[in-house]
Structure prediction request, 490 residues.
Amino acid sequence: MNWLLILAILIVAWIAVFYVAITRFKSHFAPYGPALLIKTQVGVRTIERVSKHKFWDHFVSFFYYAMPFLATGGVALLIWEAVLVLSIPKGAAPSLSYYLALPGINPALPITWGIIGLIIAVALHEAAHGIAARRFGIPVRSTGLLWLIIPIGAFVEPDEEEMKKVEPKTRAKVFAAGPGMNITLTVIFLVLAILMAYSFAPVPGSPVQSSLSTTPEFQPGDILQSVGGVSVTNDSVLTNLSFTPGSQVNVTLLRSGHLITESVVYGIYVTDVLKNYPAYDAGITPGSVIVSMGNHTITNYTAFTKAESSYVAGQTVAVETFNGTSYNSYNVTLASRYSYLLSSGVSNPGISKDYPFMGVDVSVFGLILFDQYSYLSILKNPTSGGALGFFEYLGLPFHSEFPLPASLQLSINSNPVSLNLEYLFYWLFWLNFALGLMNLLPIVPLDGGYVFLNTPLLQKNKKARDAIVAAVSLFVLFLILWEVIIPHII
Prediction:
């Protein structure tokens, strides 16, 4: 059965369920576009009980007064991102699906953890609105789920007429409670995720993430333990190995808990050749081992970078390679790495204009390796990567590192319970952060927009208020659309 047929069956079944629900069970279901609002009084009673605590007065007031600062920070982040997207080449622009924090649509979000995290984030966001409303004596008519084949959200329905009667400051506090709850949960689950990460330990060695087809001796998840008798504790050891390029060396691997030994051709392999750049024009192909450049023998990655940087753009250098059976020589006229970086969208490369560039990607044995030490360092301390480390932590899913592929999980000592708790806490942090940040923005119809609209200082002249709110909303919308569209057209 193909996906189109499955989709057609789901759509037809949903239309039937939708029709029966809104015609036969009107008291419990209401249409919300193509989705259904499933109304219940269960949540109302819970909100009534929880809202009796005076703690919520302090909670709501704190986030009401914090909203201008948080919203300003959110807009500043959008402006910064609007500048950053100018450096993204058109070919590297992310798919539009990456801009939606929806499991099943955004390929970076895992289905199970994504749905669990999104439901909890939305449900508690809406519950906070209901709790705040009850603290100000505003009735909550109903609560429930927003359902579209699967649950996609939750809602709390305060009495709209009573909401209109209260003063603007009170309405603003009710709207501020939702993102305030998400921000609070962001901090709580971030701390829990960090604490859980401390139960993990790296497995010594250098894990293989992927390898060239020309080195079938390696499999994803293998952990290099030694090369030619040299112990490998982490991937930095591989940078300075010193063996004859093209020679056979014994490599010890930890594979699924068992040590095995493979005989492999040693060297710095070409993993990729950029079209229309020097190596490509000269005829060098991926899978080749670089034996020498000029009078430099390429014994390791450090030797390769030193050899390449000893020349200048425009110089022609003799490059010898080994393809496993024969040696080949090429005359390569080096290009400018500075010009290459400019064409790739780097506005200020920070190197001289005649810095050389062969146009190849290389690595020892042609492997892409996983640094489990740095990975765990980020999980245990998101700021370990410097000022932007937190954004690196947020971006782990976009590098297919959260959750880790099953093969790479072998590089970390953990148990299934701890690992799954780590994933749960991380995604609850991540989705609360995304939902909270979005709703902070001063754009109607988001919570931040309604907080702005109900600011007491703007109530003296409603015409001016509406004009100011509309202008700010349009500016924020412009920044969002700029970030989405510009990388696809420049």
